[in-house]
Design a protein that fits this description.
The chain has 354 residues and is of the alpha/beta class. Helices cover 33% and strands 17% of the residues. The protein has 13 helices and 14 strands. The relative contact order is 0.14.
Length: 354
């Protein structure tokens, strides 16, 4: 009888994991053990040699002792954990990438690692559009003013009013699952969508009714709104730097719900104060959380939220469902759909999916 260890947290809870597993597998033939980590009440961080983790190595070792399968969102799966867990054969991580797992150590230990791509795509896309509208129409700023007793007629003055999405050119940097949903929503507003993504084929873009551009500079120079949806890699790190920002038309709006490392934040206050940027809307940062004296906190045209784009109940349920389906496939000697270290498949006598 396989033992499944669950290292849950306050977002993807033990009940969500259990419910998802019970829908996918025969619960009577499986035993469970569950712990709940302190995230999100306590921030995640680097633990051992893995990133964005919650809890300790010792906690994880205790939680997975004797388990054949472990499911988590945030627990650190380091080389020490794999060395101390000889029965472990699969780790399911219910997030878009298993950054809290040492993949090389897992592979060396013969442990399959799965993940949950697309779990928050709808949530993040909707949030990006919400931030875009908030920045373009100054919704948070005027809301705050009214709550503080100020009903300002001069918000109707030409120099203070917002702009519409209808007829605006919106540039999307990155066109994965989130970018495609953003494009579909914005097209319904009547926006014209242009895309820079060297990894997306032209047929996909054409079928979606969006325009591909040859380079990032062209996208920036043509866009009234730019929304970032690229992955953070050595090639994309700080791809939107001060030079790139100065290519934007005067008064453009910049939205980042992807990764803080894509953007150089230092020039933003000056660009807002000069009017070069009309507004920024940010959910991710180069330092999280930003320091209390961060200059953008006092900029009226900066909309800032604490890394919440993917935070919906549907995201949590979807995440648990994705990994539970891969557990069911694994227990049935079928290859899971979302494998992070395919080199282990041959060790486990599973056939790689095409």
């Amino acid at each position: 009888m396989p033992m499944i260890a669950i290292a849950a947290d306050g977002f993807v809870t033990p009940d969500l994991f259990r419910s998802a597993l019970e829908r996918e597998i025969d619960g009577a033939a499986t035993t469970f053990r569950a712990i709940t980590l302190d995230w999100p009440q306590e921030p995640f961080g680097e633990v051992g040699d893995v990133l964005e983790a919650s809890g300790t190595i010792e906690e994880t070792i205790d939680a997975v002792a004797g388990a054949h399968i472990a499911l988590t969102q945030m627990a650190p799966f380091t080389a020490e954990v794999f060395d101390a867990s000889p029965d472990l054969r699969m780790v399911g991580v219910c997030r878009g990438g298993p950054v809290n797992v040492d993949l090389q150590a897992a592979t060396d230990a013969g442990v399959l690692v799965t993940f949950a791509p697309g779990r928050n795509a709808q949530a993040a896309a909707e949030f990006a559009v919400g931030l875009t509208l908030s920045a373009m129409r100054r919704i948070p700023f005027t809301n705050s003013e009214l709550k503080n007793g100020a009903w300002r007629g001069d918000h109707y003055a030409w120099e203070n009013v917002g702009v519409e999405l209808h007829g605006a050119t919106v540039g999307l940097v990155g066109y994965g699952a989130i970018g495609r949903i953003v494009a579909r929503i914005l097209k319904a507003f009547g926006a014209d969508i242009i895309v820079y993504d060297p990894y997306t084929d032209s047929a996909t873009l054409a079928s979606d009714g969006v325009e591909a551009v040859d380079g990032l500079d062209e996208l920036l120079s043509r866009s009234a709104v730019v929304s970032l949806h690229a992955r953070l890699t050595p090639e994309t790190e700080r791809m939107i730097d001060e030079r790139a920002l100065n290519l934007l038309p005067r008064g453009a709006v910049l939205v980042n719900t992807a990764r803080g490392g894509l953007l150089d934040y230092a020039p933003l206050p000056g660009l807002l104060q000069s009017g070069r940027l009309g507004a920024v809307a940010l959910d991710v940062y180069d330092v999280e959380p930003p320091p209390g004296d961060w200059p953008l906190f006092v900029e009226p045209n900066a909309v800032v939220t604490p890394h919440l784009a993917g935070a919906t109940r549907q995201t949590a349920m979807r995440a648990a469902d994705i990994v539970a389906r891969d557990v069911a496939r694994f227990l049935d000697d079928r290859t899971p759909l979302h494998v992070a270290n395919p080199a282990v498949l041959t060790t486990l006598n599973l056939v790689p999916t095409s």
